[in-house]
TrEMBL record:
Organism: Geothermobacter hydrogeniphilus
GO BP terms in the entry: chromosome condensation; DNA replication initiation; DNA-templated transcription
Keyword Transcription set for record: no
Coiled-coil region(s): none
Protein name: DNA-binding protein HU
This protein's GO CC annotations: cytosol; DnaA-HU complex; HU-DNA complex
GO molecular function: DNA binding; identical protein binding; structural constituent of chromatin
Keyword terms, alphabetized: DNA condensation, DNA-binding
Pfam families documented for this protein: Bac_DNA_binding
Domain of life: Bacteria
Reported function: Histone-like DNA-binding protein which is capable of wrapping DNA to stabilize it, and thus to prevent its denaturation under extreme environmental conditions.
Keyword Phosphoprotein belongs to the record: no
UniProt lineage: Bacteria, Pseudomonadati, Thermodesulfobacteriota, Desulfuromonadia, Desulfuromonadales
Family listed: Belongs to the bacterial histone-like protein family.
Length: 90
């Protein structure tokens, strides 16, 4: 499903115009992004939890030359599905 498909589905299901649905989606993703940047967790009961995880620094290998390279530590966004979402999918 693309972003356009998601906007169309949201507009149809919520009875909104496509422009309003796109604004709502942009606001939702913006709020989630801002919360994760601040180091907060966003928990939507029944749907899932968005959080930030830490990935340790490690040594990798350049696939072209085989030369070892250092990969720095990074923060990564994570999503853990809630029970209701898991049950709906299965």
């Amino acid at each position: 499903m693309t972003k356009a498909d998601l906007v169309n589905a949201m507009a149809e299901k919520a009875g909104l115009s496509k422009a309003d649905a796109e604004k709502a989606l942009a606001a939702f993703t913006g709020v989630i992004t801002d919360a994760l940047k601040a180091g907060d967790k966003v928990a939507l009961v029944g749907f899932g939890t968005f959080s930030v995880g830490d990935r340790a620094a490690r040594t990798g290998k350049n696939p072209q030359t085989g030369e070892p390279i250092n990969i720095p530590a990074a923060k990564t966004p994570k999503f853990k599905a809630g029970k209701a979402l898991k049950d709906a999918v299965n």
